[in-house]
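Protocol step 4 of 5: obtain the predicted structure for the target chain.
Materials: sequence only (see below). No template structures provided, no constraints applied. The aim of this step is simply to have a reference model before the mutagenesis design in step 5. Sequence pasted as it appears in the construct record:
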Amino acid sequence: MSDNSLIGVFDSGIGGLTVLEQLVKMFPHESFLYIADQGHCPYGTKTPEEIGDRVEKITLYLLSRKVKAIVIACNTASVRIARARAVTDIPVISVIDPTCAKAVGTTKNRKIAVLATESTIKSGVYQNMLIKSGVTPVPLACSEFVDYLENGGAVSGEKIVRYKLSQIKDCGMDTLIHGCTHFSLLEDEMKKVLGDINYIACGQPTGEYLKQILTQKNLVTGFTGNGTVEIYTTGDASRAEKTISWFKPAHSPLKRIEVE
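Step 4 output (structure tokens):
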């Protein structure tokens, strides 16, 4: 059995494209529909109820497009995954669980830094999972990284990163979780401050987990050609197009949609 339907992927903005890029590499025959909810970005400073509402509304839109699975390529939204699962029986995948498991399997000294939005850090989801695995978490809220990557600014990314990471650079961790899918876009800047530690992004571990789910549920496509990639934003399409020049996979022209 097989299923040639689309796989839905969404994030508050462009950060989830770091996950999508990995998924396209890992599943070249699958077709993807990506939503950047830039009209409501950032999620990291919103209330849990507000974030949950966006998760539910985007899930319903993706269901209207007959997707066969949904990847929440946003850590902040993944905390509210129950709102998505409440309205559908198709697989809905969080980036948090596989990313955390990958970090736990990587660390040698059992101390892991978690960089995430204010909302994700406040939820304690990563900290609780790491503690249960016998790991000491070092959490740091960095919502301003999202603002910088979505909107740019007068201050350089390296300056913002250096200022924030000065708070944890001497804590002794050997592994860092990009607990926001935007943050791996700043990994080069992070390495200048923290050096050669293990950096765990969400894309690869999430893709490995998605492969398990698609196989178990007989949802792998039977198509043997190259899949398609559709990208939509709830914000300004021309502005969004300029901020995703780093995204390499071929995709249809970025379009604006309303998801309300």
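Step 4 remarks: The mean pLDDT is 96. The beta strands are 7-11, 32-36, 69-72, 92-94, 111-116, 136-141, 175-178, 198-200, 229-233, 255-256.
Proceed to step 5.
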